[in-house]
């Protein structure tokens, strides 16, 4: 089928993943390459281009010339979306607001004092707060592999495109500004929230989760990830297993039934578990644990990912047709549209679709305007029934709420969102027993409404059905069988609302042999290759312990909702999107799989090094645990760095002329850089290097982001609001600005505070009906 949406992509490391996601949605993406081809054609023997750009069309344009800029302007004038990765101050064209959705994705946004700073994935991870959360407390910060900062920018840019398509139904679309630094800062789980709500900056957690009792453990043939889970049942099942094996030591003592005691004495429990795990092969242990409904996974390498039975059964992988060969690569985070899967993608040659430049300029059709007004947000008028909890689902619906959707969060006093109560996730300066004062919950659930409903009763399910009938979207992140057991599978939802958009966000999906596996974010990271590549070597894996996988799943969930709404606007049809958090995280593994299947290279942990850039690392600065990330992209960067660190003669030294040569002398170069950085404050190091044109970034923790970053402050990234119970505090901002920054229209809801209003406004219940439901304890 011919795509209904055409996108022109001016690519960069921050925009290319967005283009790939849009290919997965079935959109026609036209890649604008320079005459010599996109730089990824020269990485991994061309397999990097295969991953990022397969399925796109290629047009070669020299945007450095006036003729090329005119060609680009003519091409963009007739499309739906212009995905613009050009640097601030180096824009080849600047389309005026209109029917073309113009998304700019840049390192720091289009305004602010650092808008023209240079950046790489490593320096963005440092300045955005990601590096401060990975690694050992007494060692250097550690980079996440496969460009996770760049990929967070990319998926946010894809969400921005889809928001723009919704916004243009209301009139001309303003420039959409996506800041990569803010994309990282918005994805730290509790990284900044711990400081905002507890005046606390957590140490880097090493191999143990900073909030919940999970971690990374050695097995007989590698590593496994997991822990004690989040319920008494999981603890009881784990102890029963240990008792069966005679490996419980003292863990069957009744005192361990107290979760607070378990958290305080976690090191002892983990030591007992490690002794048990030593004898187990990693896959055998994971399968045995999951049979007991315990959250564990083997830590798999990217090449092992290809044999994952769940991913195979769900047709996750795609075949990419390169010239003369077919290569297996990662697929997309959800099947779309209406359950379809992309099975194969062609790799275009340079300028293979040059004929597009000769097409007559099409008539620009203005989309029908459904509503207009300066204060209308892109999703104004869209109602979302939010059945999610903890982080992945609420992060998805937070994005929708921030951009104008009426998000109704369904809870009950008997089963509220765990982040309202769980003591180690509550994050509050006060007592941890008030469901309305937790910073973790209150940040990710702003701009939503709360209704409390007993969904274990027939009357409560009847109310839920009435809410479904009046909702455009239903989102849940339960395990795969819960909605069917409640009587609310897709067929029931569709009978209540024929065009409903239903997005399920279970850990592994609703189909496949592992659909019932229990997952958390760290389990998903372990199962997809991310953990295996986060470390200093194959024998020194540190892993990703915080909720990066939840953030990734939430972003893809938002993309799924928006893509389905766009599809409904064009066809009138709703759909069920079966989004697997496992597949969402796997789609962020970059070129790791084509490196194995195409280039024949086994991906391994690189620490803070890079396969093509050198030097590329994190260097100690003045003060306790102060660091700066520094990267050299090319010979020009190397010359500038040598001048700054007082080694100008090294710029022409034959020992250091190429990245490969510099890697061979890595220790000498690192010593020289450290000798220059260690007596200087990290911010001074960053400023001096940036002034010289060398990508650098202070490794910022939560306090730095909130208090000390002048760029985030100038852009108003942290937004104040007053909560009726928790008082005034700063909220994390939104990295996507559709013409203007997102505001906190209303703080996170007090538990059940909107029940009466929602039932009156949405379902049309009378005051008497609401009173009767409350008297019958249906409204809890």
Automatic annotation (TrEMBL):
GO terms for molecular function: CoA-transferase activity. Its EC number is 2.8.3.-. Gene3D superfamilies: Crotonobetainyl-coa:carnitine coa-transferase, domain 1 (3.40.50.10540), formyl-coa transferase, domain 3 (3.30.1540.10). InterPro entries: CoA-transferase_III_domain, CoA-Trfase_fam_III, CoA-Trfase_III_dom3_sf, CoA-Trfase_III_dom_1_sf. It is an enzyme of class 2 (transferase). The keyword Transferase applies. It comes from the Bacteria. Pfam families: CoA_transf_3. Keywords: Transferase. This is CoA transferase. It comes from Rhodococcus opacus (Nocardia opaca). The lineage of its organism: Bacteria, Bacillati, Actinomycetota, Actinomycetes, Mycobacteriales.
């Amino acid at each position: 089928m011919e795509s209904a949406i055409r996108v022109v992509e001016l690519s960069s490391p921050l925009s290319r993943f967005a283009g790939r996601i849009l290919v997965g949605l079935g959109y026609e993406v036209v890649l604008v390459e320079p005459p010599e081809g996109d730089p990824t054609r020269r990485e991994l023997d061309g397999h990097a281009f295969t991953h990022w750009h397969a399925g796109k069309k290629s047009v070669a344009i020299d945007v450095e010339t006036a003729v090329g800029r005119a060609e680009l302007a003519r091409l963009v004038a007739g499309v739906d979306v212009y995905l613009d990765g050009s640097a601030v101050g180096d824009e080849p064209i600047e389309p005026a607001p209109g029917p073309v959705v113009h998304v700019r994705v840049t390192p720091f946004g289009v305004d602010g004092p650092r808008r023209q700073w240079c950046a790489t994935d490593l320096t963005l991870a440092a300045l955005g707060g990601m590096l401060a959360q990975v690694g050992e407390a007494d060692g250097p910060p550690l980079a996440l592999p496969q460009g996770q900062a760049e990929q967070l920018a990319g998926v946010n840019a894809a969400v921005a495109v889809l928001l723009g398509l919704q916004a243009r139904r209301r009139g001309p679309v303003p420039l959409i500004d996506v800041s990569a630094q803010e994309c990282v800062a918005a994805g730290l789980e509790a990284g900044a929230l711990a400081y905002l709500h507890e005046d606390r900056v957590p140490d880097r957690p090493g191999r143990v989760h900073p909030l919940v009792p999970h971690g990374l453990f050695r097995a007989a043939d590698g590593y496994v990830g997991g822990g004690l889970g989040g319920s008494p049942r999981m603890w009881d099942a784990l102890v029963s297993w240990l008792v069966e094996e005679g490996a419980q030591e003292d863990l069957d003592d009744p005192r361990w039934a107290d979760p607070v005691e378990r958290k305080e004495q976690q090191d002892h429990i983990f030591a007992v578990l490690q002794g048990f795990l030593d004898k187990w092969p990693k896959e055998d242990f994971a399968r045995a644990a999951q049979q007991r409904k315990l959250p564990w996974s083997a830590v798999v390498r990217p090449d092992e990912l290809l044999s994952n039975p769940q991913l195979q059964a769900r047709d996750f992988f795609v075949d990419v047709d390169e010239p003369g060969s077919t290569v297996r690569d990662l697929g997309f985070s959800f099947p779309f549209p209406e359950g379809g899967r992309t099975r194969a993608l062609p790799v275009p040659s340079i300028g293979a679709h040059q004929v597009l430049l000769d097409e007559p300029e099409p008539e620009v059709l203005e989309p029908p305007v459904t509503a207009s007004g300066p204060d209308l947000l892109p999703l104004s008028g869209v109602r979302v029934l939010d059945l999610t909890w903890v982080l992945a689902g609420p992060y998805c619906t937070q994005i929708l709420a921030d951009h104008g959707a009426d998000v109704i969060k369904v809870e009950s006093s008997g089963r509220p969102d765990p982040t309202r109560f769980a003591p180690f996730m509550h994050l509050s300066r006060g007592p941890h027993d008030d469901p309305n004062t937790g910073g973790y919950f209150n940040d990710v659930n702003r701009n939503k409404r709360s209704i409390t409903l007993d969904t274990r009763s027939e009357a409560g399910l009847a109310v839920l059905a009435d809410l479904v009938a009046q909702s455009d979207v239903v989102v849940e992140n339960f395990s795969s069988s819960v909605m069917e057991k409640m009587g609310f599978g897709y067929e029931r939802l569709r009978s209540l609302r024929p065009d409903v958009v239903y997005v399920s966000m279970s850990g592994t999906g609703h189909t496949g042999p592992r659909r019932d596996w229990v997952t958390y974010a760290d389990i998903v990271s372990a199962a997809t290759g991310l953990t295996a590549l986060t470390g200093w070597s194959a024998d020194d894996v540190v892993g990703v312990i915080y909720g990066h996988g939840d953030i990734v799943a939430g972003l893809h969930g938002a993309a799924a909702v928006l893509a389905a709404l766009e599809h409904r606007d064009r066809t009138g049809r709703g759909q069920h999107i079966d989004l697997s958090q496992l597949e969402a995280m796997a789609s962020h593994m970059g070129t790791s799989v084509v490196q194995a299947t195409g280039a024949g290279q086994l991906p391994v942990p690189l620490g803070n090094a890079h396969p093509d850039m050198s030097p590329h690392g994190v260097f100690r600065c003045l003060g306790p645990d102060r660091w700066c990330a520094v990267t050299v992209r090319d010979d020009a960067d190397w010359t500038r760095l040598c001048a700054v660190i007082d080694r100008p003669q090294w710029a022409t030294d034959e020992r250091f002329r190429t990245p490969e040569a510099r890697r061979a002398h890595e220790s000498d170069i690192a010593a020289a850089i450290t000798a220059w950085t260690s007596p200087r404050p990290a911010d001074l190091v960053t400023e001096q290097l940036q002034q010289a044109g060398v990508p650098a970034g202070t490794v910022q923790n939560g306090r730095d982001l909130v208090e000390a970053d002048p760029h985030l402050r100038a852009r108003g990234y942290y937004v104040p609001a007053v909560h009726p119970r928790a008082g005034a505090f700063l909220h994390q901002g939104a990295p996507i600005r559709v013409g203007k920054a997102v505001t906190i229209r209303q703080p996170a809801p007090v538990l059940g505070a909107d029940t009466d209003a929602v039932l009156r406004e949405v379902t049309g219940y009378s005051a008497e009906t609401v009173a009767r439901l409350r008297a019958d304890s249906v409204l809890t």
